[in-house]
Amino acid sequence: MTDKNKEATFVVHINKCENESWQGQVTWADRDEKINFRSAMELMNIMDAALDSEE
């Protein structure tokens, strides 16, 4: 069983809302890594992948 109690700090900057979704940039504060995203779903995938990579 995997530990789902992982923590990370993300700063989300929304540039605009287009086609019923967000576009912007997320900063993974713990690593000072910035990634652009084109939808709320992509944002969630980025954050999920970041937590998985910390194993």
Explained architecture:
With 55 residues, the protein is of the alpha+beta class. The chain has one domain. It starts with 9 loop residues before the first strand and ends with a helix. Helices cover 25% and strands 40% of the residues. A 3-stranded antiparallel β-sheet has the order 1-2-3, covered by helices on one side. It has one helix at 40-53; strands at 10-18, 21-28, 33-37. The protein has 1 helix and 3 strands; from the N terminus they run βββα. It is globular, with a radius of gyration of 12 Å. The longest helix is centred in the last third of the chain and has 14 residues, at 40-53.
Layout of helices and strands:
Blueprint (H helix, E strand, L loop, with lengths): L9 E9 L2 E8 L4 E5 L2 H14 L2
Antiparallel strand pairs: 1-2, 2-3
